[in-house]
Design brief:
Pectate Lyase C-like, mainly beta
Length: about 400
């Protein structure tokens, strides 16, 4: 589904040809104190035995290409902009991603420290770390397998783009936003993590607005919430956009809002004051669909097969509009519904096994192409962005 938001999306995957000449002085290999910094392409293990030695040798703009193998290292990038990648960067082979393994041995696998904006991490298996990747700069993380860590990706600050990754079977959260990070989380598969798929702490923060975008992901089978927003006392300068995601079969809530810094889901919800836009998602098979929010607009979503309550404690300045509710134990509890009766209750959305809408679905052409909330236009879709007379409800537009 095309983005419903007007602001510019991610930088996209950078294309860098690997035909550039390698600048390497053979006598310096393996001795990070004796070589001059290198530009161009640095090949591991041809030029240096360890990935860290290659990174130490690199200057801004260099590409560190890692051949297949398992590298038991704890890598730090500090004060430079580089690319760290496997041979998948030029080959496009999935096997290069699966067989190029960075193993942290229980410590953080990759740390991207301050002053490292625009660093790219691509096409690697990143495993067995406390954090798979710890981020303090604006970085691009794309096309990786981030598995079997404690937290998969941990944003202590910075931000950037997290796209096209498999983030799975981590022992705590798939993605953890601990610090003030402005990040776009797009087109990832975030599944089977032991706690939340994505956990966001809304700590006190004042400054330029932090925009958190969670768009077009598959967030399924996590052992607590699909997405969890953890509230603190005061509103912070953040906006959260959650759109076009499949959020299914998580053990607790699809989107859970937690109060007072609590991260143990109790389904009570929280009066989160930061604006939250929850638009065109398919939320299916969770314990609860959505809990909480005092400043949340839920529009064009499917809430289906919820074992408890689909939408709970959506209060104060919130609204639920143009949603479809089906086969939930309870559809709504303590929730403000659109007074124009735009929500659809009791009609089967006719989802296939991939959660696509089948012909005849009442969700087809039933969504809002434009929607205003609190005096602001939050949906403004051109007709070219959907098929039919209006956009569909849910995360996938029908053919």
């Amino acid at each position: 589904m095309k983005s419903i938001f007007s602001q510019e999306r991610g930088r996209g995957v950078r294309i860098m040809l690997l035909a550039a000449p390698v600048m390497f002085v053979a006598s310096c290999a393996g001795d990070p104190d004796s070589f001059r910094p290198l530009a161009g392409v640095i090949a591991i293990p041809r030029d240096f035995q360890s990935v860290q030695e290659g990174i130490n040798a690199a200057v801004d703009g260099a590409t560190v290409v890692i051949s297949r193998g398992t590298y038991r290292e704890n890598i730090v990038v500090m004060g430079k902009t580089i690319t760290i990648t496997s041979e998948n960067y030029s080959s496009g082979l999935t096997e290069d991603i699966e067989q190029t393994v960075l193993d942290g041995g229980g410590y953080t696998v990759i740390t991207v420290g301050p002053r490292s904006d625009d660093t790219l991490i691509q096409g690697l298996t990143i495993q067995n770390g406390n954090d798979g990747i710890s981020v303090e700069s604006d970085v691009e993380i794309t096309g990786n397998r981030i598995v079997y860590n404690v937290d998969g990706v941990d944003y202590e600050g910075g931000g950037g783009t997290l796209s096209g990754n498999l983030i799975s079977r981590n022992r705590d959260d798939g993605v953890d936003l601990d610090g003030p990070a402005s990040v776009q989380i797009r087109e990832n598969t975030i599944t089977d993590n032991d706690d939340d798929g994505i956990e966001i702490r809304l700590h006190s923060y004042t400054g330029d607005t932090i925009d958190i975008v969670i768009e077009d992901n598959i967030i399924c089978r996590n052992n607590e919430d699909g997405i969890q927003l953890i509230d603190y006392d005061d509103a912070s300068d953040r906006t959260v956009h959650i759109a076009g995601n499949l959020i299914c079969d998580n053990a607790m809530a699809g989107l859970g809002c937690m109060a007072d810094g609590n991260t143990v889901e109790d389904y009570s919800g929280a009066p989160v004051l930061e604006p939250v836009f929850f638009i065109n998602n398919t939320v299916s098979g969770n314990d609860y669909g959505l809990t909480g929010g005092a400043n949340l607009a839920a529009v064009n979503n499917i809430f289906a097969d919820t074992s408890q309550v689909a939408v709970k404690n959506l209060t104060a300045d919130s609204v639920a509009a143009c949603n479809l509710f089906w086969n939930n134990t309870a559809d709504c509890e303590n929730t403000i519904l659109d007074p124009s009766d735009s929500n659809i209750f009791g009609e089967d959305p006719l989802l296939d096994e991939d959660y696509m809408l089948m012909p005849g679905s009442p969700a087809i052409d039933a969504g809002a192409a434009s929607f205003s909330w609190q005096g602001e236009v939050i949906i403004d879709l051109p007709a070219s962005s959907y098929t039919g007379e209006a956009p569909d409800i849910g995360c996938y537009e029908s053919p």
